[in-house]
Amino acid sequence: MENKILIGIIAFILGIIVIAFPLLSVGFLVVASGLSVCILAIYWIIRGGIQHWNENKATCVLYVLVGLFAFFFGLVLTGNFPLFLFTSSFLLYIIGFLMIIFGIAGIINNEKNMSKISSLLFFIFGIVLLIFANLIFENPLYLALIIGIALMIEGISLILESKDKKIGSEEK
User: Fold this and answer.
1) Alpha helices in 21-140 (DSSP H)
2) pLDDT, averaged across the chain
3) What is the pTM of this model?
4) Higher-confidence residue: 3 or 52?
5) According to the model, what pLDDT value does residue 114 have?
6) How far is CA 32 from CA 65, 74, 80, 122, 123, in A?
7) Fewer Cβ atoms within 10 A, N terminus or C terminus of the chain?
């Protein structure tokens, strides 16, 4: 329980930092995401080249090819602000459309009012993500705003969740 409170506080503080220093935050994400893709690619190349070589040569070649592609993409992505904004915007479009679809499905299929309200909020947030996906091209500060708000909401959610469980366990 206490870990959730601590993680919630850290998430909330990180959200404030991201919003307070948006260019530094997005710049960090540009470098960190590119390096993360490169590290994952190296793992795939090593895993595919070593682990699958004796089992299945086709799987080995697939791992190595995907790993090489991912490594070069990671190198290109590292420090490439416009490409990062494009991929972020593209992902927000996909997530926004999926949230709208699942929100509509939840409104139609759920019987409980709370579930319908949750689905409606999901639908509305999907629309908001589509709007922000457009705005990211104009100004990358919107990406920092989305990330910061998401971290703050997650932090509050973790804190409230741990408090609810603590109250629930005291009642028993």
Assistant:
1) 22-50, 57-77, 81-109, 113-138
2) 84
3) 0.65
4) 3
5) 66
6) 23, 10, 11, 29, 31
7) C
Hey, what are 15's tokens? Answer: 């959200």
Task: Work out the percent of the chain whose per-residue pLDDT is above 90.
Answer: 23
Helix 22-50 to helix 81-109 angle, to the nearest 10 degrees?
Answer: 90
d(CA 59, CA 44): 11
Report CA-CA distances (Å) from 74 to 35, 63, 94. Answer: 6, 16, 21
- Spatial contact of 68 and 41, defined as CB atoms under 8 Å apart: yes
Phi and psi of 119, rounded to 5°? -65, -40
Exposed/middle/buried for 120, CB within 10 Å: 0-12, 13-18, 19+? middle
Residue pair 71/64 in contact by the 8 Å Cβ criterion: no
> Residues 102, 75: contact at Cβ < 8 Å?
no
Is 77 in contact with 34 (CB distance < 8 Å)?
Answer: yes
